[in-house]
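Record type: ASSEMBLY
Status: queued
Input:
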Amino acid sequence: MEPILQIKHLTHTYGIGTPFQRSAVEDMSFDVQQGEFLGIIGHTGSGKSTLIQHLNGLLKPTEGQILLGGRDIWADPKKIRDVRFRVGLVFQYPEYQLFEETVYKDIAFGPSNQGKTGEALDRCVRESARLVGIRDDQLEKSPFELSGGQKRRVALAGVMAMEPDVLILDEPTAGLDPAGRENLMANIQEYHRNHQKTIILVSHSMDEIARNVDRILVLKGAHILMSGTPAEVFARGEELLEAGLDVPQVTRVAMALKARGLEIDPAVYTVEALERELLALRKGGAAC
Amino acid sequence: MLKDITLGQYFPGNTVAHKLDPRTKILLVVLYIVALFTAKSLLTYGIMALCLAVCVRISRVGIRQLVRGLKPVLFIIIFTGVLNLLFTPGETELFSWGFLHVTGEGLRNAVFMVLRIMLLIMGTFLMTYTTSPISLTDGLERLLNGLKRFHVPVHELAMMMSIALRFIPTLIEETDKIMSAQKARGADFESGNLIQKAKALIPILVPLFISAFRRADELATAMECRCYHGGEGRTKLHVLRYESRDYVALTIGVLVVAAVAVLRRLGL
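Status: finished
Output:
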């Protein structure tokens, strides 16, 4: 099957012709498969935000192409809005974009821009509110009365309500408490399972990425450093650490154990996998 | 994009133009403006343009940035030009069309007015390009210090100005972010009539105002936590001192004004 998004030799340079000229993304190429849950990690300044803003046409590539469903998204610049409906982007701290009088109206902003009205609109709004755990009685409240975490959910629902084929989330859990993080990620996982939609998750937290995604893209200095399944990427844990990036806590433990001479696979990244490894080791160890 | 707005933007550098005392630069700009409004002929305008060109060369600010600064006032420039061109009474009529008359005087006026506005803006922009907002307000505060005797809250005004200048880039960035976020939700700022366009701004303005108030609140708290209590008895980390280059620059400035004034007297 054809990948839903193809990024081909994407380069983006800011401030051309000023003293501040620099490339935030340089010659990046990768594909995103239909229904995939892709994680993107990298330091501040590694080009994550610039990259994702290209995927829905907010930024125009200096060089290279973005293909959505096989078509160049800039083939017809007048239709770029349609691309934005198909590729939903939730920015970092999206709660600062809320503006309507009620939560309901705010969530409805995106879908009504799409031209949805009446029952179709109502259905999208309620469904996406339910998905992120906003209760019906909260829909008529002012979004500014809600707590920070709830505002974030409303903002998320505002993009989900457009029912995009690809949903991009930029640090959706930044600044939330641990329970809030877990909760929100569970909602996102549920959305992914139920709708079979493609999700791209940008995060700083290796643990969050490791637990949720099918494939990881590691960015460093405007380039792609690694790409692969979590197991493949964390098998190169040393390299990640050298690049100044983190590895999941469990991987860190496994790496430390391996360094102390235990025969263990350092690429494990869930508690369960580590437990299996350790149990297997104990059995093997009992034999000698 | 909004990021291209260069108002009050500072390009760091290490040239003489950057190192001059901010007070000198403010005074020079004042002198420059006086000279610009004294200028009346091609020769004197030429001198002013030359002065600006020399300053630009010294400061190593790209000419492209300087020209880009003109973009926001392009409308005013064109408007002034057209108005002067069409409605200046005079003897030498070049051509007329209905009630519109283009006269030689009109053409001359239009060219000079446009030139004057452009030089004015580029000159002041050169100052903000080479002076950080902080030192600019510092210089202004020192220059206006004498007014304290007349109970003008000079320090407070300077503080307000530096806070305002400090937050311009932050708010521009914020606006950019909010615009992108709303565009991602399909907001359309380009099409539609005037009313639709004004309405399309609501999704930007509401979050922007809320965040501006939030920032103001946080800043006030932070200042209070550090015991800020106004200008009384406050000392400076960087005390401004005139150097010899400042005297040289000011002397040149005064000489240019004098030269332009003399040339005007001579009718040149």
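Annotation: The domain at 5-231 of chain A is CATH 3.40.50.300 (Rossmann fold).
Annotation: Chain A has eleven helices and ten strands.
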